[in-house]
């Protein structure tokens, strides 16, 4: 069965545009819930020998301490996690003592992580620089890789269509995390930025595989119809793209459910990004080449 990717491309464009608009609206309305990696603060995690005390009991134990605005959460059945913008070691030790008083803590079961606000701002700045450099490097790589495929579409168009698909993948994934941040307190942290960099690579890899199959079809059918070569390349790449992403997502689902709180949203980001990357490489980035060619032809005829 041959799927008509090109014929139905406007349906997929509409779906993707709707997701982008919804994600952008969520980001504008709710904002990014940045973790202490970027804002500065402390995270205390205590693992108890038996089940962790209730959240209300924990909050009562912390009452009266100069913790400012803090969040107390459960992590599994045996751990409590305290997040605060305070970095004063004396106050943090008082918080540990109070939480130890409401339950028996495992030996070595206390973990404290503190980041000053200056370091947090520096990490935010460097993360943004890394993301921009990665995008530019990807664009240059694709343009150079497909420089010999200049007809009927220039090599740089392949690069930009891949970047558009990548933008779609990252923005929609970020939109989901922002909504989860609003509903469940999910924070944007360094591990999630790392996940986004991985999504960059995975999404572009999917697009490049499809582009490469298209290049082979163009070489074999010199003078053939570009749209037919594109649709053929997409159908030939479909099974490979789905199988590769599916096997990766299976491993990530294991990390999501069994890897603990630290890796949970890192894995979720990758699951969303890799799934969206497979979709966009088949339904967005490559069909955009046909849309660009049609636009160019109409412009010249006009």
Structure summary:
This protein has nine helices and four strands.
Task: Characterise the protein shown here.
The protein has 2 domains: 9-36 and 118-301, Multidrug efflux transporter AcrB transmembrane fold (Up-down Bundle), CATH 1.20.1640.10; 41-115, Alpha-Beta Plaits, CATH 3.30.70. 70% of the residues lie in helices and 10% in strands. The protein is built from 9 helices and 4 strands, in the order ααβαββαβααααα. Strands 2-3-1-4 form a 4-stranded antiparallel beta sheet.
For the record, the CATH class of the largest domain is: Mainly Alpha
Radius of gyration: 24 Å
CATH architecture of the largest domain: Up-down Bundle
Give the % helix: 55-70%
Q: What strand line-up does the widest sheet have?
A: 2-3-1-4
What general outline do the C-alpha atoms trace? elongated
* CATH homologous superfamily designation of the largest domain: Multidrug efflux transporter AcrB transmembrane domain
Number of strands: 4
What is the beta-strand fraction? 5-15%
Whole-number total of structural domains: 2
What order do the helices and strands follow?
HHEHEEHEHHHHH
Main beta-sheet annotation: 4 strands, antiparallel
End-to-end distance, in Å? 37 Å
Strand-pairing-aware structural class: alpha+beta
